Protein: Serine--tRNA ligase
Organism: Pilimelia columellifera subsp. columellifera
Amino acid sequence: MIDLRLLRDEPDLIRASQRARGESESVVDDLLAADERRRLAVQAFETLRAEQKQLGKLMPKAVGDEKAALLARTRDLAAGVKVAEAAVHDADQALRAAHLAVPNVVAPGVPAGGEDDYVVLREVGDKPDLDGPRDHLELGELLGAIDMERGAKVSGSRFPFMTGVGALLQLGLFQLAMQEAVAHGLIPVIPPVLVKPEAMEGTGFLGAHASEVYRLEADDLYLVGTSEVPLAAYHSGEIIPLDEPLRYAGWSTCFRREAGSYGKDTRGIIRVHQFDKVEMFSFCRPEDAAAEHQRLLAIEEGMLAKVELPYRVIDTAAGDLGSSAARKYDCEAWVPTQGRYRELTSTSNCTTFQARRLNVRYRDGDGRTRTAATLNGTLATPRWLVAILENHQQPDGSVRVPKALQPFVGRDVLEPLR
RNA sequence: GGAGACUUCGCCUAGUCUGGUCUAUGGCGCCGCACUGCUAAUGCGGUUGAGGUUAACCGCCUCUCCCGGGUUCGAAUCCCGGAGUCUCCGCCA
């Protein structure tokens, strides 16, 4: 949710942000109107309520006719208060709905436009010179690392079994990611992957992403699509110390229905219903958020360097930002058989947007409580295996394990077990 | 799955049976001031959070006793639903 004070003071800023995203400006005016209506309703209710309380104080001492008259008046008042209270309730709901409809304010400097209007910040590393490279699935099957067919038999499409050296490689990658995270001062976390509706809604995933989410009807719980959800909700409703940013690294399984992606990335493990992910998550003061964003990006790039992948960094255009994000950087690794870069990491600065909904605050130097800023960023997913397999493949179908990964994988070359 | 106890303004706690004087008691902690030439001790004052009014402040008002409803002129207190914590029973890969 955006800051209502900012909206009142500078509505044009929000309108400009909506234009940059290519989204409707009318939601801004709807929100302004809803805010105005709510304040009027609140004032009407409070006036009546104050009068009711005044009269209520006289009640215990009143006797006889005086008491009867008082009772008659307060009875009327009570009815009026009830009506006014209901009006406030309705106005609150309307305000909340209008509030949720407005995405975060785009940060200054974000390129305007849609998906293809990103700006490439840099390209790093050398693309491998491969003669007739095999794609990750062919390599995965050759190595006994990925079993899509049996996954489909047991669970359906987009549910791979990771097997043999594939399982070892994934575990090694994740272990490296967690060690890197700890080295950078992040607190490792293994969160629950089933969460209550509040956590899901608080992180904004029941809005545009609702159809992407698995839900357990019998228990009214949701399967998270990223550990961002439990990590963000971790401090919900709390006032936390933020003299230093609070940083976490969550390792969790993620579940996505991939409802809108039929026919997209159907081959291999690029896009699956269930995968593990190491996700970084920071809480910090709003004024530190931009620096924290760079920090998360730097950790991601450090990790990409450790696994020796060629990649580029893009500054995502406004129209391609999630509704919570004010700015987003993606690291995309080179995928030889696709001849293009594919997203491996994504780090978003959500400023106070997410924390306002989740009510995460800190105490400022002057003793006042303020809404925190939140940021998130990817540190490892199975999609990284796609890039690692393809970029480090050898002519014989084996795969070189990057040096930094070797201790965690337990070997320097991937070959079929046995 | 069943039964019971509990949840109060940072922490602990009084109040709930018997609705109004609860503008929620006391202790601890924290902040400020005074005093003692340091520290400590002592005294005084302050200390939940949110919203509205205001250019802002002061002040005033409203809401907030786990959450949501209800009863009532009036709810921390009574009723219903939910969440969480603990205890016991049952079941269990």
Notes: The domain at 119-414 of chain A is CATH 3.30.930.10 (BirA Bifunctional Protein; domain 2). The mean pLDDT of chain A is 92.
